[in-house]
Structure formats: structure tokens, C-alpha cells
Design a protein that fits this description.
By secondary structure, the chain is of the alpha+beta class. It has a single domain, classed as Lipocalin (Beta Barrel). It has three helices and ten strands; from the N terminus they run H-E-H-E-E-E-E-E-E-E-E-H-E. It has an eight-stranded antiparallel barrel. Strand 5 and strand 6 form a beta hairpin. The longest helix has 15 residues. The termini are far apart. Bound molecules: 2-acetamido-2-deoxy-beta-D-glucopyranose. 2-acetamido-2-deoxy-beta-D-glucopyranose binds next to helix 2. This is Apolipoprotein D.
Length: 191
């Protein structure tokens, strides 16, 4: 095999091993929330469901967003690991194209590539549907999806509607692939 093929096989194998969801072809382009008001989007969001993401294994997963004076967003993600310790990571998100405020780009480590953070839909005060996708060589892509909420739980009605929105969006995320985040016994996290 040439180096390129080795790289592709390696990347696909890694993606599969990490339990990520990978597909052939380039990233889909789902429509996003129109005129997202980033200020209203700030604050704490609880993770309700997600497409498997190897870097988030704990329970009580939540994200806290705050607007910085330079217009970028401070991102603070936390979770409780199985041994009870709190794991957190801080990053920065920014809107790259002001005409597309619902498409943010998040980076957690300086020098590492950033990941897209697309708000497919939100009402700011109860739920948010988030999608992310990275493509490799235009040959395959790995995607992520999150159902976030302002409260640690959402009603079955709302979740059902969000599943439908995900499935019918261009991202075509199958609700059966989403895993539910445990948001019980989370009092330890101080917002
Ligand atoms: C965004 O929301 C903030 C806070 O509610 C408000 O002050 C601001 O006018 C909104 N911006 C736009 C462009 O609607």
C-alpha cells in the first residue's frame, strides 16, 4: 500500500476503535439556526444525549459558555468520572464567518485543529441541537451530535422531536445511535 492508503486505513481504524461514527464521503451540510444570537446561547448546557464521543466518558456532562470581551467564547466542559473525580477541559470557540453565527469553531489545545460546532436549532432557554463533522481527505468523515438542555432532563416529547430533526436534517443522524448521558447524582458539580 502507498503511504496515503496506509494513512486512510489507519484513520478509519482509529475512528472505529474510538467508537466514533464514521461515514464515507465528505461532511454533510445540515441547515443551521438562522441568526443565532450568541449572547443568548451563553451559560450552562447539560448534555442529554450524544453520538458516541470517546473523549467524553463520564456522567453529569455539562458545558458552560461565556462570552469574552474579544467576542470569542470561553468553553468549560466538565464531567464526573466513574471514580467520582471531576474532569474538565477549557477551550475557546469563535464564529469564523459573521454571516454564519450558528457555525462556531472550537479548539481545546493550542496548535491542534479546531472542530466545528454547529447549532442546528435552539430556543436558547430549553434545548439545543448541536452537530460537528470533520472530514479526512474528502474520503470519509467522522461526526458527532449532541442534544443539550438548560435542565438536566428533557421531556420525551421534546427528545422525540429532536431525534426527528436530526434524522431529517442533511446530517441524517440515526437516533438509535445516540447514547443517553447519565445526569443523576450530579450535585457535586458547582455551576
Ligand atoms: C442578542 O441577545 C441580547 C441579549 O438578549 C440582546 O441584547 C441583543 O440585542 C441580541 N442581538 C441581536 C442581534 O438580536
Amino acid at each position: 500500500m502507498c503511504n496515503f492508503q496506509v494513512l486512510v486505513v489507519l484513520s478509519v481504524t482509529l475512528a472505529a476503535a474510538e467508537g466514533q461514527t464514521f461515514h464515507l464521503g465528505s461532511c454533510p451540510r445540515p441547515s443551521v439556526q438562522e441568526n443565532l444570537n450568541v449572547s443568548q446561547y451563553m451559560g450552562v448546557w447539560y448534555e442529554i444525549e450524544k453520538l458516541p464521543a470517546a473523549f467524553e466518558r463520564g456522567k453529569c456532562v455539562q458545558a458552560s459558555y461565556s462570552l469574552l470581551s474579544d467576542g470569542t467564547v470561553n468553553v468549560y466542559n466538565s464531567e464526573i468520572l466513574s471514580d467520582g473525580t471531576v474532569n474538565s477541559i477549557q477551550g475557546v470557540a469563535k464564529v469564523k464567518d459573521p454571516s454564519q453565527p450558528a457555525v462556531l469553531s472550537v479548539s481545546f489545545f493550542k496548535g491542534f485543529p479546531s472542530s466545528p460546532y454547529m447549532v442546528l436549532s435552539t430556543d436558547y432557554h430549553s434545548y439545543s441541537l448541536v452537530y460537528s463533522c470533520s472530514q479526512y481527505f474528502g474520503l470519509f468523515h467522522v461526526d458527532f451530535a449532541w442534544i443539550l438542555a438548560r435542565t438536566p432532563a428533557l421531556t420525551a416529547d421534546v427528545i422525540g422531536r429532536l431525534h426527528e430533526d436530526l434524522a431529517t436534517s442533511a446530517a441524517a443522524v440515526d437516533a438509535k445511535q445516540l447514547i443517553v448521558t447519565d445526569q443523576t447524582g450530579c450535585d457535586i458539580i458547582i455551576n
